[in-house]
Specification:
The chain has 521 residues and is an alpha/beta fold. Helices cover 41% and strands 11% of the residues. The strands form two sheets. It has an eight-stranded parallel beta sheet with strand order 9-6-3-2-1-12-11-10.
Length: 521
């Protein structure tokens, strides 16, 4: 079955509280997807944002972003008041996330809600507190990551959010007695971080269940690496490459490419793959098993890193000093499949690929990605629609690309525009002149590129929401290699009109991708 979906980060949903969340707008967007005949809602990682406000530099590979907790649901549960919500400052621009204002206001409200919740759970016998059964079930089911996460965040808060590598030695080196004393003395603070994850999970599972009931699958995003400043790195130890002092020996990045002339120095710790082999890839099995509980489909970022990865000596100024090393290859994916069954994985196989990466993709059986903005450099480019294999997912652009409007108006070269105009029949001439290409209106170019994606042989086509809306550079989610100004776009209130949903449905129907409406029970 040919399918289509829309890329729309939860953070980009509209609403009055500074960032998109799991509230009414999420439900409205599910209804919009259903009306538009879509079967996939692709989101970015749901993990807490980290360095540079990036969801790919999170403090945890398992935790959810507390910013996505619906404050109005907390109000409806009696944990917050209207006056508290109205007095909070979430920034001035409803179409841009102000992460500074969000950090200050959101946690203040969440702490207030936690205080009311704890008081409401207090028992009538002595000082014992009785929490809801589903809270105990959640904490028990997730204790293998939740306990460490809550302890880590409690200490991090006490240390004024400094990286764990700058904590006092007894915490930095995880002295068991010191950590036990801290946990005993800070039960309420540790409980706060568990409460956030409980609320996140409860609200997200409700949204996901509603989407599934409408025939819509959630396509989530799993970064290949964890952040250096994360609970995973703090407790992981042998999971990562360490030097003789126990510090990270090398870090992740990519060499110079289309996006960055100096490469990209991500700074994430690299995995000690030999240790992972010795454990039967237990940590990866745990990670993918958990991801499968919050997503229906899983896009793994930087798939090529499982074949060969770019290793940069720690302390390097740029990624140029790195070198290629061999990853775990199919050994990892066989271990995952043996433990979990057939994997609902989509491989982000973009970048400068060698034959061994292509072979790994073929051996895995995972669908790769095809991006139209890469297709028009000349020759029989593998990203041209006629070269797309059925077992793939096609995009006009990813979250790292700019929007189609901005690409056509500013980013595409003259050669790319001429090739695209010819290939997609935007002009009468087979080899159009510069003047003929210039005469192509942006809206027409955008429509042609979207239709090319939908008509592709790829089984799945994912169109970013900002491309359906025709937005420009203001909606560009992420410019790789740039610190600051990323991950901030939000849609205007009322963007998901019935007319737009019908337009999308008809466009997808022409390419045999539209889902029939799912009738309410």
């Amino acid at each position: 079955m040919r399918e289509s979906g829309i890329l729309m980060p939860v953070s980009s949903l509209p609403g009055p509280y500074g960032i998109g969340c799991f509230g009414a707008e999420a439900v409205k967007f599910v209804d919009f997807l259903a009306a538009a005949g879509q079967t996939i809602w692709q989101i970015l990682p749901l993990s807490p944002t980290g360095y540079g406000d990036s969801p790919y530099q999170s403090c945890s590979a398992f935790a959810g972003n507390p910013y996505f907790i619906d404050l109005e649901a907390l109000r409806d549960e009696g944990l917050l008041t209207d006056s508290q919500l109205e007095s909070a400052d979430f920034g001035d621009d409803p179409c841009q996330i102000d992460y500074g204002a969000l950090y200050n206001s959101r946690y203040r409200l969440l702490r207030a809600a936690y205080g009311v919740w704890v008081d409401g759970c207090a028992g009538q016998h002595g000082c014992r507190t009785y929490y809801p059964d589903d809270y105990y079930a959640f904490t028990l089911a997730n204790e293998d990551w939740l306990d460490d996460y809550a302890l880590y965040m409690a200490i991090k808060s006490e240390q004024k959010m400094k990286p764990w590598t700058e904590w006092p030695e007894e915490y930095r080196l995880r002295d068991p007695q010191a950590l036990a004393r801290y946990a005993a003395d800070n039960e309420e603070e540790i409980g706060f971080w568990k409460f956030l994850q409980y609320m996140f999970s409860k609200q997200w599972q409700k949204v996901k269940a509603y989407a599934n009931s409408k025939g819509i699958q959630i396509l989530g995003d799993m970064p290949i690496y964890v952040s250096a400043d994360s609970v995973d790195a703090w407790v992981g130890g042998s999971l990562f490459e360490l030097d003789h002092e126990g510090k990270f020996a090398r870090v992740a990045g990519v060499p110079p490419d289309y996006f960055a002339v100096d490469g990209q120095l991500w700074g994430n710790p690299l995995y000690n793959w030999e240790y992972h082999r010795q454990t039967g890839f237990a940590w990866w099995i745990k990670r993918v098993r958990y991801a499968a509980t919050i997503y229906d489909l899983i896009r793994i970022d930087h798939f090529r890193g499982f074949d060969t990865y770019w290793a940069v000596p720690a302390g390097s100024a740029t990624a140029k000093a790195g070198k290629w090393e061999n990853g775990p290859g199919m050994e990892l994916f066989r271990a995952l499949e043996n433990a979990l069954g057939k994997l609902p994985i989509i491989a982000e196989d973009l970048g400068d690929l060698c034959d061994s990466v292509r072979q790994l993709l073929a051996d895995s059986g995972f669908p790769g990605m095809k991006v139209l903005q890469f297709a028009f450099t000349g020759g029989d480019n593998e990203y041209l629609p006629h070269n797309h294999p059925q077992n793939s997912v096609v995009y006009p652009g990813t979250h790292d690309n700019t929007t189609l409007t901005d690409w056509w108006e500013n980013a595409a070269t003259a050669k790319e525009k001429q090739t695209a105009a010819s290939y997609l029949h935007m002009t009468p001439a087979v080899k159009p002149t510069a003047a003929q290409v210039k005469a192509v209106k942006t809206a027409a170019a955008r429509q042609a590129l979207i239709r090319a994606a939908l008509a592709s042989p790829s089984q799945r086509a994912i169109i970013p929401m900002y491309d359906w809306l025709g937005l420009g550079a203001e909606a560009h989610l992420n410019t790789p290699g740039r610190l600051g100004g990323n991950w901030a776009w939000r849609a205007k209130a009322g963007f998901g009109t019935a007319a737009l949903a019908e337009e999308i449905r008809q466009e997808c129907e022409v390419s045999c991708r539209a889902q029939a409406p799912v009738l309410a029970e």
